[in-house]
Amino acid sequence: PGTGKSTAMHFLVRLAEQSKKRVLLASPTGRAAKRLEETSGRPASTIHRLLEYNPHAPGGFTRNQDNPLDGNLLIIDEASMIDLILFYNLLKAVPREMQILLVGDPDQLPSVGAGNILKDLLAVREIDRIKLTQIFRQAEKSLIVQNAHLIVSGRRIIFKPREDMEKDFRFIPEANPELAAKKIVQIITTKFTNNINPIRDIQVLSPMHMGPAGAKNLNLILQDTLNPKKRAIDEFDYYGRKFRIGDRVMQIKNNYDKEIFNGDVGFIENVDTTKNEIQVMFDRRIIYKSRDLDELVLAYAVTIHKSQGSEYPVVIMPILTQHFVMLRRNLLYTGITRAKKLAVIVGSEKAINIAIRRDDTGRRNTNLTSRITTQLTT
């Protein structure tokens, strides 16, 4: 963060267009595609949409080697999120004359699916790359930026900002998970001014789904605190899971019929208990029947893995030793870099230091690097 990726992308697209190149922009998730549109000023789509996903087509996509993409330059953002199968299908649809630019951060969490595409490609010396390393002046005073770079280099973070630094990072010590959950609620309900909407602008990110400070429990607490039940008609009870008008919710699997994708976040506008349906506003209104609700969860709190490709004005993270099994350097780095204005960690220094020390991200034996190197050198 703070090294000018967005600015570089913006001008790169402009330069390509001035050279009469047709530029295609895509990203693995809908949220990341929207961010790419904002930074580039040009239309962007998910990779699935770019390849024209069709479950009845061979390989699942209309675009392939027999029906390739039309363009001169393909830019893929958030490349660390692409899994091996999706990248294979993407390359099948790329004609020989098209150039590909992958943009991403290899220090973030790898893809949920198989493979470690970005790291594997960066390990191939014959592939050209540019690494942005200079932190620009406007970002030098950001404690989010400074701590992100300290985490990546395996060094202790700055817990208390110097006088000349921005107050965009805060650490609140609390080693007990139950008390940490209570402190998170207290922070959200008492520490922000009117220009921060606690439901729309604050995202709680947890290393784990279960446990007192896990996403599941935090969602229940935050729903009852921030959006309590007012009238029976404002709530839809789906096998004990309660959805209320005003709730922040997340789609957790790709639904190509509705064109809503895993990780998309929206807000419930209406519930209709007579029709057994709820209306959710994403970038457009989507109607969920009761049979669709297994795809929808509360999103006041989500796991850090689910936050990839997103940014939020305020991020609050519980980081505790009870999360030991998940504590890794790339997890902490991914979480803190989701915050645009303020990152708050509620937890223990011990847990944070464990995460920074543990760089064993889990070996993924893809053999991709050696196979590409062999192809390029023979």
Describe it.
The chain is an alpha/beta fold. The chain has two domains: 5-135, Rossmann fold, CATH 3.40.50.300; 153-357, P-loop containing nucleotide triphosphate hydrolases (Rossmann fold, 3-Layer(aba) Sandwich), CATH 3.40.50. Helices cover 29% and strands 21% of the residues. Helix 10 (329-336) packs across helix 11.
Number of helices: 12
Q: In percent, how much strand structure appears in the residues?
A: 15-25%
Query: What is the multimeric organization of the chains shown?
Result: single chain
Shape type: globular
* Largest sheet report: 5 strands, parallel
CATH superfamily of the largest domain, by name, is P-loop containing nucleotide triphosphate hydrolases
Strand and helix order: HEHEHEHEHHHEHEHEEEEEEEEEHEHH
Average pLDDT taken over every residue: 92
Strand arrangement in the largest pleated sheet: 5-16-15-6-14
Q: Structural class, from helix and strand content? A: alpha/beta
Radius of gyration (CA) equals 22 Å
Distance between the termini: 38 Å
Question: What's the count of strands?
Answer: 16
CATH architecture of the largest domain: 3-Layer(aba) Sandwich
Look up the CATH topology of the largest domain.
Answer: Rossmann fold
- The tally of domains stands at 2
